[in-house]
């Protein structure tokens, strides 16, 4: 089945996000986060980051129910759109081709319902717009400069890894345990830690979309501004330093609850023998290098995705062990030093990782 | 009683901290935090920050039990030591004068057991040492440049405010509620937000000692280093942005559990009519501007203090309402927007401020 | 003469700057630098920094000729305005008292023509306005948070030092040579490196007014924005690290050529025995710690000042050696390592400090 | 001739630098800049950056004369070493193959004398070493995290562009004038602004090697440290913001005069239709976005390179117009605003760009 050549994917390019109140979402993405409007009308807003030169990184689309319309990737050549179509047809997936693009600014594209149930899109043709990198008079203190990655929730992570590797992605980091369970995996096309990650859970769902800033203080400035606007409850988790990816991060929730990460300073991964980093699920520095416990909602909440007809894709339950239960749930544990276990932590710290077990 | 002239206090100057394992404490304060050793022997270590020119900002003293030996302030003239002695004698407090100083590097000093039960010291004479401000070859990524403030736990904050104002301090910010309860107050001599703060709770206890860095990234670097050393469990709270003081902060616990804050970027308060900022205890941005809940240990834990004979001062219980109970306890609540209440917060956020109620 | 008690000065408070094109100046100070307009009309604009709570830090006043109207200091009490008046009368200086203030927002004030020829003002009464410290939604990437200091050009620096010490200032740093010449001195009331400095040259003239940012990247952001606006020729010197003061700096020129410094991270100087730092005029790290040569215009250009009738104060020539000539002029030299001299510098570097000699 | 398939080059990987005093160079690269020693002996030191996982990014080699031994690139597969060898043989270039590598840590490699006279190397096999990205206890304030690019001096830039495009590089930015002269061009394999750049001048020479930091303050910290060590004369140019590449930069000179750039925050260039940015040679923000004049030595000085026998490659003179002469030389000019010319600059600024004409 994998004899069919995978398309040559450049990078994650944009996400179509269905929102229930376009004005509220515009306020969040434009007024608070400072994304730039490429164009907009009463039903859609096209947004891009400061260093982007393609038409958009997000399409906000008004709809009756919050959901994700598509995860879109750019490919290297026009022919790679054909290759993508053939690749998914060969997998028996439903595909749709639109020579004029499904959204503004994008030309010939194929959309598919992938083997994990996600709506994926591939395109090459795209309108160029001004790269605002040098336009410092337009920068806010928390300027978002680049779309960095997607993150998807899927019940069977090893299956997802296999599929994505066939599609040409490489795994850079993963969270596993010594019983052979995989909790999450990060995979890339462009030479950063990821273009998308697969997080174990009931899926298909969208965990988050992530934008990069230049420096860490830019991320702190977003928090400060949210406080000033009395919108600090949009902050779900962080800011902090990831173990996985070594990046500095912040997780926000948009007015519909869609999760947006702000992210900076991971590392170059472009060599074919780039060392894969595997983290123990019980290492409490894996998701936050400073050991800050992950809030339970970060594990449990995610956005539903739509099929190509615009209907919610039904969820499949994860049957493997859950990271939440393994680490902060009733039977779980986590450690700061692997040779000492949780008991070695200071007394005032020991309860902290169990706080989720009341959920 | 207050006819006696208060001494002219310059600033908080140093703290004497009794630790149970001098080698472990040295590793924490010197190897991890990068404080500079002015001198040391088998029983004591004298430490200072990069921009300090007086002999020390901390004396670590080996002892059988973790505790605080003294909170020491520098006064403007030698005569102010006399004034301090007279001030406390007039209050009926026990005082001890030592012309040669109670510790190395410090000359004529008076130590007192103050009306709140704290061991306070006042001195003018001190050895000058090299101010390392320009010695960038010695800076670590998380360099501590200045002693910023103390923070004390005392059961009756209004009583403490009154006493400290008599001593010449000015209140800059406070946390109160509409029933007239005061939960905490910040007070200063040097024109920053505080030289010390009074936090409501069973006291007298030492809540924390705080050092300043130049920038926020220096504080993040300390967290990153603790992660790398697999010592992230020394991080108790933060990093974050305070509401009170507007400073960026981090709270650590030393090997004995003494709390150390790292702090940067509060504001100038030196005008006599500097506006006092009062925060509502139910405002969940008061202690963290980003709305991150305060971990319960931060409210409950603090260091015992010693009397002038070296014995633990007995605790007096707080009878006023507790900030922990009012905000994250069984009956408490907190809000992001005062006109909306907790119910307005996103659903996934509502439980978060109650997590402490299982304690 | 100095038996008269000096007024208790709190800090430098504001400067009245006469500009020839109010719209152009507004664009520079408000649109580019982000200072906040407290109030304005067709002839005047009142500006303040983000953390200020008094009415203004700058008054821009429309006039026929670019000049400085006044250097204004805030004193501790209303009575200190009387003290200031008496102090200068005793010195035989011309004074003017205005119970209603000379500008909006300020009450009872005295203006004087001081012994060096500068127009100085002292006031206590002032309107309070909102301190915008927490209003992060209003911060730009290069936000100016505090007025830090003035800098004045005067021919006889030792004379100026003596007068300012009588007025209650303390010298914190100075540039001298081994022949006894003083080139510049820094002096403070608030416990930073300075509220004003005296720079040797033909005077009285205003060298610069300086605002503080929180961090160094804020200063870099101002440069980036000026580049984006194609206004980079407003940058005269820097950014760089000062030797004197240890602060990070940038010098701009406003549309009339008035010099504005942006400055961050000097150190606490509030102790009475704060060590004075004396720099050798030949040390090429004194004005820039990285050894970047000072551009000649920075030495030669400065703004004329007005007397109390609004006329330009005549210049008195400096007769002592000039720092420009001593260090980058025909006979001057400077060194990186005092024991080696200029010859020890790499060949490609040796000419650099002489570039000014063609002027 | 170009029918021969170019090797698939991943990235610039390391440079072999011949130094005359190994101890002095070690002090500069290791003690001052903080590069990590992978291994060393009396004749060679192998150095890498914090995020590198291959054996080294620099080989310092003791020699009688300062020069550059090789510019080395990593290719995607072992077969690409064969491809590189064939590619250069087809060009008629001298090549040498060594199955065991020419230096430690590297396997099968080919070295060539390329059409521009530069010693180039291509390899795939390399020893993996620990990626120190998470080892924050080892970071200095100015930590170098990644080798970013090389920069080469060559007389005929268009010829160099053509050759490098045949080799598979893409131009991202260039400096040209309206008469058709090319002054410099930037070209990349990995998706940053460059893996190497071609600067017009007498060549072949090595202009600089560049390492990346995470943030801008890291670069400032290197300057501060050089000041503290009284080594500020190692700073040749900057820090500043480039126009070309939009990166923040600093140029140092090592003890032999080899130029090292410290660099951070350019942008993603990985799309095949990435917009090429062309700068006018008279735009004085092209090389420094803040308009700071380039020091003449930066244009004139560069390191000689060796042929495969270890002899200096003779220089070929540039005959096209020189950027130095065009912009700061006798007949040159530069502008801040293209529609206004130099005359529009403030008077105090106009002479500044001519300072080089005395050379």
Automatic annotation (TrEMBL), chains A, B, C, D:
<dbReference type="InterPro" id="IPR050383">
    <property type="entry name" value="GlyoxalaseI/FosfomycinResist"/>
</dbReference>
<keyword id="KW-0408">Iron</keyword>
<dbReference type="InterPro" id="IPR044904">
    <property type="entry name" value="HPCD_C_sf"/>
</dbReference>
<dbReference type="InterPro" id="IPR011981">
    <property type="entry name" value="DHPA_dOase_Mn/Fe"/>
</dbReference>
<feature type="region of interest" description="Disordered">
    <location>
        <begin position="327"/>
        <end position="359"/>
    </location>
</feature>
<dbReference type="InterPro" id="IPR000486">
    <property type="entry name" value="Xdiol_ring_cleave_dOase_1/2"/>
</dbReference>
<keyword id="KW-0560">Oxidoreductase</keyword>
<keyword id="KW-0058">Aromatic hydrocarbons catabolism</keyword>
<feature type="domain" description="VOC">
    <location>
        <begin position="146"/>
        <end position="265"/>
    </location>
</feature>
<keyword id="KW-0479">Metal-binding</keyword>
<comment type="similarity">
    <text>Belongs to the extradiol ring-cleavage dioxygenase family.</text>
</comment>
<protein>
    <submittedName>
        <fullName>3,4-dihydroxyphenylacetate 2,3-dioxygenase</fullName>
    </submittedName>
</protein>
<feature type="domain" description="VOC">
    <location>
        <begin position="11"/>
        <end position="125"/>
    </location>
</feature>
<dbReference type="InterPro" id="IPR029068">
    <property type="entry name" value="Glyas_Bleomycin-R_OHBP_Dase"/>
</dbReference>
<dbReference type="InterPro" id="IPR004360">
    <property type="entry name" value="Glyas_Fos-R_dOase_dom"/>
</dbReference>
<dbReference type="Pfam" id="PF00903">
    <property type="entry name" value="Glyoxalase"/>
</dbReference>
<dbReference type="InterPro" id="IPR037523">
    <property type="entry name" value="VOC_core"/>
</dbReference>
<keyword id="KW-0223">Dioxygenase</keyword>
